[in-house]
Write a structure and sequence with these properties.
The complex is a heterodimer of chains A (about 110) and B (about 120). In chain A, about 0% of the residues lie in helices and about 50% in strands. Chain A has about 110 residues and is mainly β. In chain A, the strands form three sheets. In chain A, strands 2, 5, 6, 10, 11 and 12 form a six-stranded mixed sheet that branches. In chain A, strand 7 and strand 8 form a beta hairpin. In chain A, about 40% of the residues are buried. Chain B has strands at about 5, 10-15, 20-25, 30-40, 40-50, 55, 65-70, 75-80, 85-95, 105, 110-115. In chain B, the strands form two sheets. In chain B, strands 2, 4, 5, 6, 9, 10 and 11 form a seven-stranded mixed sheet that branches. Classes of the chains: A mainly beta (about 110), B mainly beta (about 120). The interface of A and B includes residues 32, 89, 96 and 105 of A.
Chain lengths: ~110, ~120
């Protein structure tokens, strides 16, 4: 079956540091890939997505590139802020959208001033 | 702005009770989902529905049922609550359109405690 593996953390960085959160996946066919973010006390929000190989999703300074050859979708940001502290989930959908997403276990990111 | 509303943020129930979690979306989305979120396990799909009165089992349906009588409302039912169902429950919805990869929109979650 489908699966997503991501670093669990917590990941602690200083403000303005470079961020990478690794995500690799196993799926049948050609899945769509997503990063969701969950701020404290809130539900999940879509951060970015990519639907085919070599696509780059980007939003709020975050980027991730769909790498089919390495089955990866690593999340990066050049300079993190305290407000980026949250839990980040990598997810995939190989069923065309009608069924549920397969999530990684989430990475807790803590940014210190 | 899109909105998925879960009826309760926090809920405390007793073992053996029948528990209803309600979710309403105002986006006219066809697909609706129920997940549970547990530390170290991430989100796991319980049930989903792609149309009124239609439902499909997710990865962990045991001990749960669902109801979708109207397009905007998707209810999760714990038939006889047990302590291992203490968790954060998240509802989501998504659109069916020409692009099959529509994102899911999530509610803020219901933190359920079973005593």
């Amino acid at each position: 079956g489908d699966s997503v593996t991501q670093m669990e953390g917590p990941v602690t960085l200083s403000e303005e540091a470079f961020l990478t959160i690794n995500c690799t996946y196993t799926a049948t066919g050609y899945p769509s890939l997503f990063w969701y973010v969950q701020y404290p006390g809130e539900g999940l929000q879509l951060l970015l997505k990519a639907t085919k190989a070599d696509d780059k999703g980007s939003n709020k300074g975050f980027e991730a590139t769909y790498r089919k050859e390495t089955t990866s979708f690593h999340l990066e940001k050049g300079s993190v802020q305290v407000s980026d502290s949250a839990v980040y989930f990598c997810a995939l959908n190989s069923g065309g959208g009608a069924d549920g997403l397969t999530f990684g276990k989430g990475t807790h990111l803590i940014i210190q001033p | 702005d899109v909105k998925v509303t879960q009826s309760s943020r926090y809920l405390v129930k007793r073992t053996g009770e029948k528990v209803f979690l309600e979710c309403v979306q105002d986006m006219d989305h066809e697909n609706m989902f129920w997940y549970r979120q547990d530390p170290g396990l991430g989100l796991r799909l319980i049930y989903f529905s792609y149309d009124v009165k239609m439902k499909e089992k997710g990865d962990i349906p045991e001990g749960y049922s669902v109801s979708r009588e109207k397009k905007e409302r998707f209810s999760l039912i714990l038939e006889s609550a047990s302590t291992n169902q203490t968790s954060m429950y998240l509802c989501a919805s998504s659109l069916v359109g020409p692009n099959p990869n529509q994102p899911q929109h999530f509610g803020d979650g219901t933190r359920l405690s079973i005593l």
